[in-house]
Recover the amino acids of this structure.
């Protein structure tokens, strides 16, 4: 079996909320293999977004270890974590979070420019990805000139354009209607099935969960159910 | 750091320069009103400071030109002790030979003077006077004092004299009257002259009009036993700024116990007046520029506050905080370019116009004459006038943006992404 993309061991995280400790994660063990489409679900406060953020290097665990694509986050500086996010991970956020002053094409190019991809190459790749996602006609539009679904597709294009080892999506359907959500999920499914992209999404949307190939449910900071743990 | 992360192109963020400027430019127009207000503040401050400094520069030039061209000249050569005591004995010997050597210096004009103190009498009235012997033709090349003879004419004959209007009034004298001058000559003898008044001058400075009388150089030299000696060689060059270069040449020719005194030593009150005005103005400019810088700080506090979520997203994607700081610095720089360009354009058009037509002094013309000022002020564009405000504002805006964006280093992507 190939090396896992994500390995979390005994991950804990406690927040202080008005001086009261909130145990967001209580010793979570979690492994994701290449090509999996995992949905992290659970009620609010269950720890799904916290786990996603820790896997994405956006937050640090209080204890335990996180290894993504064979890189152990332990002891990495903020700068090294930023480099890792830039080169190995793709993010799709709940509220699209595109750069409002850049066009769709420029938004997709932006990450590649940070990575140092030459102009001609990154422009070609960005156009290619946007066209594949059905946005070929609106590459020069800015986010404000696009619908929510179109913006989320641009966000996906931005996330996958530089071919990350792992795509992380936090509540990707939260601001979308059901038809647009379905379109987005079909897109993620295609990326997962056709390109073998590993996807982890945090959601409480049943439709998103239904598209995932593996369901992981969290409650009170611990994994309550994991398809991977079930006998095949 | 693990080998895998170490292998990543750590300097990749630096390659995003093109996008930095593009994003900075477009970010400014997300809120055009705020951008124009801030740029307008920068434009206002830079134009005000530029115009005020140009006016100052023009005023100082007028003061220096007016004061040096009035009577004392741009520089003088004197006996080393003459500045302190002004004694009759403190002369420059062999003046003719020294003047001949000075004449060889291209562009330098020289007027010799001797000065003795005497009792001036007309009939039974007497007053103390300074008797100045000059070469009227040379004086005309060096100062404009004798343009102020407005009654009668300059002395033509050796026994003619011009006196100040106030002295003539005090003596009850007029054109054609005989003026007797009696004083101590060099080497302890008596200096006595009987001269005919050929003209009256009114310099605008009552002290001079009350005490000075002018006649030919040789008349005073002969009358007061001064031989070929003078008390001052008054100097003028085309541009007063060239004086230091001339000074080096002139000092090579000077005999012992002779000193070159530039206008700054001859007219310390003018230097002090300029310095005082300059310091006062700098305090005002400083206050104005600090105020504008605070308005820029305010703008960038708003910018960072409003875009916290966006910055969080950029950090989450792997953008380095330093790149985001550069982005805001670039926005501040473009805002500065906009403001300063408008400010300099407006101020330089205004200054160019005022420099062409002059600004009339109106009712304060006579007062200003005491300070050697002409009837109109002509602002002058100088390097300092067009560079002080822009440079100060550039530093101010960049510092403002830097101070405000330092918090980006402490920004956590997760926290920032939750910002409203």
């Amino acid at each position: 079996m190939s090396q896992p993309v994500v390995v979390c061991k005994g991950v804990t995280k406690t927040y202080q909320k008005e001086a009261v400790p909130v145990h967001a994660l209580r010793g979570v063990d979690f492994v994701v293999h290449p090509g999996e489409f995992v949905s992290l679900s659970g009620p609010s406060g269950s720890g799904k977004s916290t786990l996603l953020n820790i896997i994405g290097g956006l937050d640090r665990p209080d204890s335990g270890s996180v290894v993504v694509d064979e890189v152990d986050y332990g002891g990495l500086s903020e700068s090294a974590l930023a480099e890792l996010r830039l080169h190995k991970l793709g993010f799709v956020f709940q509220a699209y979070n595109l750069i409002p002053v850049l066009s769709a094409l420029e938004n997709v190019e932006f990450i590649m420019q940070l990575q140092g991809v030459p102009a001609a190459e990154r422009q070609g790749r960005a156009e290619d990805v946007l066209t594949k996602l059905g946005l070929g006609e609106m590459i020069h539009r800015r986010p404000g000139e696009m619908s929510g679904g179109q913006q989320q597709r641009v966000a996906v294009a931005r996330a996958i354009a530089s071919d990350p080892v792992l795509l992380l999506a936090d509540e990707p359907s939260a601001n979308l209607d059901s038809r647009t959500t379905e379109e987005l999920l079909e897109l993620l499914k295609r990326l997962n099935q056709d390109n073998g992209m590993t996807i982890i999404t945090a959601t409480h949307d049943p439709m998103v969960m239904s598209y995932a190939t593996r369901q992981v449910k969290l409650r009170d900071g611990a994994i309550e159910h994991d398809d991977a743990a079930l006998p095949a | 750091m693990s080998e895998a992360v170490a292998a990543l192109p750590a300097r990749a963020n630096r390659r995003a320069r093109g996008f930095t400027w593009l994003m900075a430019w477009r970010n400014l127009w997300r809120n055009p009103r705020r951008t124009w207000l801030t740029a307008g503040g920068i434009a206002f401050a830079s134009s005000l400071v530029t115009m005020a400094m140009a006016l100052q520069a023009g005023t100082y030039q007028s003061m220096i030109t007016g004061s040096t061209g009035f009577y004392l000249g741009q520089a003088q050569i004197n006996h080393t002790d003459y500045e302190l005591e002004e004694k009759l004995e403190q002369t420059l010997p062999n003046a003719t030979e020294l003047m001949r050597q000075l004449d060889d210096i291209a562009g330098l004009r020289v007027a010799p003077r001797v000065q003795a103190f005497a009792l001036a009498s007309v009939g039974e009235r007497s007053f103390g006077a300074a008797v100045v012997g000059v070469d009227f033709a040379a004086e005309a090349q060096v100062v404009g004092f004798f343009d102020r003879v407005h009654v009668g004419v300059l002395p033509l004959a050796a026994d003619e004299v011009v006196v100040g209007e106030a002295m003539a009034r005090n003596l009850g004298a007029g054109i054609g009257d005989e003026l007797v001058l009696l004083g101590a000559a060099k080497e302890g003898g008596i200096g006595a002259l009987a001269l005919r008044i050929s003209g009256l001058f009114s310099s605008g400075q009552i002290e001079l009009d009350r005490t000075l009388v002018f006649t030919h150089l040789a008349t005073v030299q002969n009358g007061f036993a001064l031989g070929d000696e003078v008390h001052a060689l008054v100097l003028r060059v085309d541009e007063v700024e060239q004086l230091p270069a001339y000074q080096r040449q002139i000092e090579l020719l000077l005999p012992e116990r002779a000193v070159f005194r530039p206008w700054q030593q001859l007219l310390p009150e003018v230097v002090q007046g300029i310095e005082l005005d300059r310091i006062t103005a700098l305090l005002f400019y400083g206050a104005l520029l600090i105020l504008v810088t605070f308005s820029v700080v305010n703008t960038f506090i708003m910018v960072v506050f409003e875009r916290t979520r966006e910055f969080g997203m950029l950090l989450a994607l792997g953008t380095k905080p330093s790149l985001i700081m550069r982005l805001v610095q670039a926005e501040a720089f473009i805002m500065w370019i906009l403001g300063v360009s408008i400010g300099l354009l407006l101020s330089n058009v205004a200054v160019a116009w005022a420099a062409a037509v002059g600004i009339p002094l109106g009712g304060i013309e006579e007062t200003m004459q005491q300070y050697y000022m002409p009837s109109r002020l002509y602002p002058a564009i100088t390097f300092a006038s067009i560079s002080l405000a822009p440079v100060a504002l550039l530093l101010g805006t960049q510092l403002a943006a830097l101070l405000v964006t330092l918090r980006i280093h402490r920004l956590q992507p997760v926290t920032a992404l939750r910002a409203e």
User: Anything to note?
Assistant: The longest helix of chain B spans residues 32-72. The longest strand of chain B covers residues 109-122.
